[in-house]
Amino acid sequence: xxxxxxxxxxxxxxxxxxxxxxxxxxxxxxxxxxxHNVGSVFRTADAFLVKSVYLCGITSTPPHAEIHKTALGAExxxxxxxxxxxxxxxxxLKKEGYTVVAIEQxxxxxxxxxxxxxxxxxxxxxxxxxxxxxxQSVINACSSCIEIPQFGTKHSLNVSVTTAIVIWExxxxxxxxx
Length: 178
What we know:
By secondary structure, the chain is of the alpha/beta class. It has helices spanning 14-19, 35-47, 65-71, 74-77, 86-95, 136-141, 159-173; strands at 23-30, 50-56, 80-83, 98-103, 110-111, 122-128, 144-147. It has a single domain, classed as SPOUT methyltransferase, trefoil knot domain (Alpha/beta knot, 3-Layer(aba) Sandwich), CATH 3.40.1280. The protein is 34% helix and 21% strand. The chain has a seven-stranded parallel sheet, sandwiched between helices. Helix 2 (35-47) runs parallel beside helix 3 and helix 2 (35-47) runs parallel beside helix 7 (159-173).
């Protein structure tokens, strides 16, 4: 085996990315404080052709050097929008026909591996603050909550890791025939 050179990977240009069909998924960050997490979410959203990232509350927005450090330019390819509050984003998404799901540990949450995907639906997933999670008022406005099964001693994963797992799962079920 030989490691491929960057020039051999046949990646899309930013203009090609913007024109390309996307998976029907929007990622909403509800008060995510870490600029590295925000950048990582952009980079993962780029990798899997996510439609958009919504940044809410205290979540920082591009352009920002610390976001760029982990996004590596994905903040320029992935569409994004800012909202003062995640509830505003949820209401807009519902009006646009999105099924809005919080990624949170709640009573009655559905494990990600048991979630019933509908390829005819558009989805938005909400991820919350690194310590406090998704706001309860935002959870109340969602259709349901999804939880990632965990088996060790810890009760949560890093926001960017969680986002990557969730995007991967949605991309597999809503794929564009990757």
